[in-house]
Fold 2-oxo-4-hydroxy-4-carboxy-5-ureidoimidazoline decarboxylase.
Amino acid sequence: MDISAVNALPYEDFVNLFGNVVEKCPLVAAAVWTKRPFVSLSLLEAAINEFIDALPEAGKEGILRCHPDLAGRDLQSGTLSPDSREEQARAGMDALSSAEASRVARLNEEYKQRFGFPFVICVRLNDKANIVRELSERCLNTRAAESARGIEEVKKILRLRLQALVLPDAPHKL
Amino acid sequence: MDISAVNALPYEDFVNLFGNVVEKCPLVAAAVWTKRPFVSLSLLEAAINEFIDALPEAGKEGILRCHPDLAGRDLQSGTLSPDSREEQARAGMDALSSAEASRVARLNEEYKQRFGFPFVICVRLNDKANIVRELSERCLNTRAAESARGIEEVKKILRLRLQALVLPDAPHKL
């Protein structure tokens, strides 16, 4: 689908298509529909980022809280969103050794206890070792730093999810 | 559950419990968890309303766009949220005559074409005749008036959904 086809979508189809580019937050896509038409995929992405940036701090934390734990309960019980399932599997988070799984579960709990939201990372841009190291290191940050960092990761995730749904922008003619 | 039990919930349980008090917008409950503890159910409700009020206009329209049509496709195909299904059935929206169903479908389309979001009404506070009359009359409003009116209805719906989940506040001692 190219951006002109996106611009022609009624809101229901738009929300169905883009409702999970921010995990479990169809409200974000539903809000951004108001801003159509989009000149390019980049500007659709920018509109989504702008909506997120305009949320109060609690709203940003709310976005993080809509994310599942990495290698957590939802992965084990098969209740991840299809997007998350594919992303976590691709990074090998569904095939941790028993020792790795215990370590990740312990670090996830520590992180959530400390910050009141889950550890969010764009798993497509990281391998398993890197993810576990980040989880361990980011537990030591401040809450404000982690909220900001989590939202940065949300933006990386939504960029890749958008790119899987919309054809790339044509290069500018010279 | 009373308000002190609500205040003791980890965010995951809080979002599971209250994630649909605003239809398909778990982000709202997930954001409001930041504001706990809540002294009373009324103040939990106030925190949710405050979060909604602070959204930009596009965000309010986004909330409306997360709602299904009344007596629409989701009702017919069984894909309504359990909350909506029960509410629509109680108002008799699942048992329209063929003529009523056609009229509602036509008015829903007219409304959505005009405003870019669906007609939202607290069906628990209205009977079938009243709902159809409101749908017909509200089609004539301005977009700004209907966005504001839709959000008022969202607040009535969330109040009743909250009351179904949390025990009422104790009356003040004299």
